[in-house]
Design a protein that fits this description.
Length: 67
């Protein structure tokens, strides 16, 4: 499950089950979504992985200059 938010809006949840492989550390769905945002003018600021309840999560912080 991808959860996306900005300072202006509530979390958007995206079911990434169809994109996930059996690899425990496959972050492809998150990276594909980040690449989509990057093509819209967003840039990476920080990426962090963290352990959670039996799996590993990834946090990607991006920013975009105000238009």
């Amino acid at each position: 499950m991808l959860k996306i938010s900005s300072t202006q809006e509530a979390f958007q949840s995206i079911n990434a089950k169809d994109l996930k492989t059996n690899d425990f550390l496959d972050f492809t769905p998150a990276l594909l979504k980040a690449s989509e945002y990057e093509s819209e003018g967003w840039e990476f600021v920080e990426t962090t992985t963290f352990p959670t309840e039996g799996w590993i999560g990834i946090s990607i912080m991006m920013r975009k200059e105000k238009e």
